[in-house]
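2024-03-11 09:14:02 INFO receiving multi-entity request
2024-03-11 09:14:02 INFO entity count = two
2024-03-11 09:14:03 INFO echoing inputs for audit
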Amino acid sequence: MNNFTFYNPVKILFGKGQIAALATEVPADARVLMAYGGGSIKKNGVYEQVLDALKNHKVVEFGGIEPNPRYETLMHAVELSKQEQVDYILAVGGGSVIDGVKFIAAAIPFEGGDPWKICSEKAPVTKAIPFGAVLTLPATGSEMNSGSVITREETKQKLSFGSPLTFPKFSILDPETTFSLPLRQLSNGIVDAFTHVLEQYLTYPVNAPLQDRLAESILITLKEEGPKALQNPTDYDTAANIMWCATMALNGVIRVGVPTDWATHMIGHELTALHGIDHARTLAIVLPSLLRYKRDTKKEKLLQYGERVWGVTEGSEEERIETTVQATVNFFESLDIRTRLKDYEVNQSTIKEIVRRFEERGVKNLGERADIQVADVEQILRMSL
Amino acid sequence: MNNFTFYNPVKILFGKGQIAALATEVPADARVLMAYGGGSIKKNGVYEQVLDALKNHKVVEFGGIEPNPRYETLMHAVELSKQEQVDYILAVGGGSVIDGVKFIAAAIPFEGGDPWKICSEKAPVTKAIPFGAVLTLPATGSEMNSGSVITREETKQKLSFGSPLTFPKFSILDPETTFSLPLRQLSNGIVDAFTHVLEQYLTYPVNAPLQDRLAESILITLKEEGPKALQNPTDYDTAANIMWCATMALNGVIRVGVPTDWATHMIGHELTALHGIDHARTLAIVLPSLLRYKRDTKKEKLLQYGERVWGVTEGSEEERIETTVQATVNFFESLDIRTRLKDYEVNQSTIKEIVRRFEERGVKNLGERADIQVADVEQILRMSL
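2024-03-11 09:21:47 INFO inference complete, emitting structure
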């Protein structure tokens, strides 16, 4: 097992009716920016529940944070927050709203010039406004970690940042808020969470059997519960199980002491930045090719994954690996997530553009062995055509 | 799944060489009480490593915290801390030292009279001195939770308390510190952790498949790694896996959203208080009888546990449950932990005394269904004779 540090101070309030706890979780004297997305919370009752819980608080609203939250939009929230002397933020929505709020929280007190430097130059976050979250879409895990991914529309960049200061103080996870999600978003969330686990699991063995089994526990549960959720999105227990799996997938518990491979995310972000393809779908496009391309260096874990998650025990090692990757593809496709670039009308020219951008940014040494270079990225994307 | 709150802000620093991090984890201007146990840390090099890391700190030492830490001893540490104006505590040792430090931390600023009231009357902890831990014995999980169990020698009481203020600020887990543990303590630790998991798992199903699998992940890993650790206590990876399992067993992750049954602990504490039997051994005595006595109400989970952890699939339900409980007993015995009261020269008269004490204290409604009364405790203990 590798050495590690684990720290996650996010308080989770999980279950039916927990939104009412906002009344006490948000400090009584706070001046709150309530940040949300495209307005779905106004259709499903969450908006009213939140305002009701905060009826004795001073609340300023900021709606319109888009999927893949944009720097340009978020800076309006920063401006509004300063005007209104906001000292607490509440994110109400999915991972994009929460990621966006992390940026707003760090940008308000940022003293180093343009807050975009937090993403582009990894400028250190030394202060941040405290914030909490009401999660309405199980997917990214942002509700229980300190990471954030922000898109700059002007330059079509999608970049990440994180800081110990950008953990939510609390996150409320009420599975009932997901009952009205479009199936497309539910599918995306399941694939996103599933891929998060694989990126922390399909590397090389370091004799960490507990971490392996914890990862497999989430994978098997998503495999079982995912199709049920699509069939019956208002079944409470199924929704609860999906929601908790997505949070556990990226709260750090399965990552400790093991190598990780975030190449799929890094490559996928480019497809979103250039073509606006849903984040989860970019992962479903990239991951199978990456696994096939790296099947030798990931062999032991691919075989273990195949056996324990998909029951693949027959055939040569090469055959078992291919059966396992195909089982993963079939799972994604069964959730109505297409896994080929051509399904999204993306072709060779995009691959060239991604290669150009990676070269320009000096991207190199991706993957758990730091052996995925730009030429490998090109190969992987070609395999996904 | 049941509603739940999860909060665990303990920072974990895991691995070889991590004790050196004390230099920065303990605030530079702190006046530190370094608390430890019977002196084993002076034989295995941990004492020197800690003092070396804290060479620029003001440190006051307090040794001699015993297994099942005693109120009487801890109050001496409270007195010393006040004299020396201690404002930070470092626990160096196993669960007993860490539990003891939690009490010291809460007792120093306690304003409600005798700090024993924190245990005996559940007097609220409104202030506590911050503290960290260097763990040297994987077992109780105290390094990553806020609970503590204190024994009052005078009255032979063993009582628990906990508060959000008694989480360690950090815990350092270096598996190498366990290399020199007596096998007896290693066995105890494995059984303690294994039982902690079972007490959060062998209840009734609430459609929480992820929590079930996370619990089973720890059980299977302890089952596999435990015997290896006894055979080769200086194998780093094995020691690391045991250590991380013990922490994960009681840091709250597997408890969320599911019922729990702490009856085994409640009854076991009495055997320690009256006869000084090692804590883990009391669990190994009580648990099998409790599972047999409650086999009907725990049926679904016992069958699942048997199948997934011990591979028990043959026979009637009744037979499979008995085979499963016996497999658990065999596992404990294989670790050289005896599971009968007679192995510890305890007889009927102790059972009577425990019944008397429970009646006196008004103990009732134990177990996940609150249906274990004193008469049931008597039956369970008789089955363990």
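2024-03-11 09:21:48 INFO post-check: Chain B touches chain A through 40 residues (CB under 8 Å).
2024-03-11 09:21:48 INFO post-check: The mean pLDDT of chain B is 97.
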